Amino acid sequence: MKVLKIVVMSAVFLGLPVQADWRNEGSPEEQLANLVKLVPGTSHWMFEIGERYKNLYWAAKLDRWEFAQYQVEEIEKLITVVQLARPKRAETAEEFIDTGLPVIAEGVASKNWDAFKPAFEKLRQACITCHGKNDHAFISLPAEPATAGSPSLNLPRR
């Protein structure tokens, strides 16, 4: 609080304009416009989806099917967020949900690596197709991710 007072007093002393807090003092239109500006771009969510993609692969490889199922559920939630936050991506996101997720959900439900592996490849292809339709064909995914980011996958089994 002291720092804020010092900053404001310095701005007043130096003759700098002090910007009003649009969150409290702005019109509803200004508040909405600023909130829309604050919504992250698609790449923000794609980064997390990429981490979950890697964790999904390794969870299945390590026979941690419950954790794999959790990754599928979280990927679906994130894609749904993309649909809401980025309306121009909604159609291709829906295509991904319809084509990529049911196949991988079945692969995970099988609790069998040999059934999972081709389902994971179909998920990867659905990702690559979606990237291409959104002018991001240069973004590919590994068929066999080298690592997983989740420390949960490095814990000893009980």
Mean pLDDT equals 89
Q: Structural class, please? A: mainly alpha
**Total beta strands:** 0
**Looking at the structure, what is the overall shape?**
elongated
Domain module tally? 2
List the total number of helices.
7
Biggest β-sheet: count, sense, barrel? none
* CATH domain topology of the largest domain: Four Helix Bundle (Hemerythrin (Met), subunit A)
Low-confidence stretches: none
Distance between the termini: 48 Å
Percent helix, as a range, is over 70%
Strand content: under 5%
CATH architecture of the largest domain: Up-down Bundle
Rg from Cα: 22 Å
Element-by-element helix/strand order: HHHHHHH
| CATH class descriptor name of the largest domain | Mainly Alpha
Keywords: Signal
Protein name: Cytochrome c
Signal peptide: 1-20
Organism: Candidatus Thiodiazotropha taylori
Describe the 3D structure.
The structure is a single chain. With 158 residues, this protein is mainly alpha-helical. It folds into two domains: 2-38, no CATH class; 42-154, Four Helix Bundle (Hemerythrin (Met), subunit A) (Up-down Bundle). Helices cover 70% and strands 0% of the residues. It is built from seven helices and no strands. Helix 4 (42-61) runs antiparallel to helix 5 (65-85). It is elongated, with a radius of gyration of 22 Å. The N and C termini lie far apart (48 Å).
Which features would summarize this protein structure in a list?
Four Helix Bundle (Hemerythrin (Met), subunit A), 70% helix, 158 residues, single chain, 2 domains, mainly alpha
